[in-house]
Design brief:
six-stranded mixed β-sheet; 16% strand; 15 strands; five-stranded parallel β-sheet; 5 helices; 231 residues; globular; UDP N-Acetylglucosamine Acyltransferase, domain 1; alpha/beta; 2 domains
């Protein structure tokens, strides 16, 4: 519970930083922050494994209560964050509506989700799965990220893009299917308090200024070939 509360506190701090409003204002009026609270509570609940009968009964009642909260949140905010998904600290959802994060998906720290974004399961057989999103990734309005693929740290996924391939760090991808157009990264889009002292971001920013494919720097190469991500 302590970690869940700490992560929610980081979410609230991120909204306060981006919007320039007090944390209390964010808590009561930012729909994304409210959806994050319901998600953090549910993720904590699903991670519990009570041993004694009384605690098991209370746990089941709490799960039912969360399910009701989850459905109300979907209706009121248009945001569906499955409690079994893994979401890092500092999540920022800027606008209302149409946001789906499936149960198998994961996001790293300080990611941005815009309206109309879907992170969903796709593929067949052993290739079926959900996307794994790195840290500080910006996903623009209407984008779909589908299947068992990975998105590198500081990547940008453009508006209405459909991503069915792995993207390396700092890749900027647009189109249907998404194609990489640069390696400048998400540094102009993803901001949070004390980011200047984040060593991982600073190192990635230095590489992003070179706008060079990671393969040339000894890292990950161009996006993989299509992974047969069919529905």
């Amino acid at each position: 519970m302590r970690q869940a509360w700490a992560y929610f506190g980081s979410d609230i701090e991120r909204y306060s930083h981006v919007l320039g409003r007090s944390k209390w204002t964010v808590f009561f009026f930012a729909q994304g922050a409210q959806a994050s609270l319901v998600y953090r509570f549910g993720h904590w609940l699903y991670g519990l494994q009570p041993r004694f009968f009384l605690f098991q009964l209370l746990h089941k009642l709490a799960l039912i209560f969360h399910f009701i909260l989850f459905r109300l949140t979907e209706i009121l905010t248009g945001i569906s964050l499955e409690p079994k998904a893994r979401i890092g600290r500092g999540l920022y959802i800027g606008h209302f509506g149409g946001i789906i994060v499936g149960s198998g998906a994961s996001l790293g720290d300080y990611c941005n989700l815009s309206q109309g974004v879907t992170l969903g399961v796709d593929g067949r057989g052993d290739r079926r799965g959900s996307p794994q999103i790195g840290n500080r990734v910006f996903i623009a309005p209407g984008a779909k990220v589908l299947g068992a693929i990975s998105i590198g740290d500081d990547a940008v996924i453009g508006a209405n893009a459909v991503v069915v391939r792995r993207l390396p760090e700092r890749a900027v991808a647009v189109g249907i299917p998404a194609q990489i157009v640069s390696y400048k990264g998400a540094f102009d889009f993803v901001t949070y308090s004390d980011m200047e002292n984040d060593a991982a971001r600073t190192a990635s920013l230095a590489l992003g200024k070179l706008n060079t494919p990671p393969a040339a720097l000894g890292g990950v190469g161009q996006a993989d070939e299509h992974q047969d991500a069919e529905q």
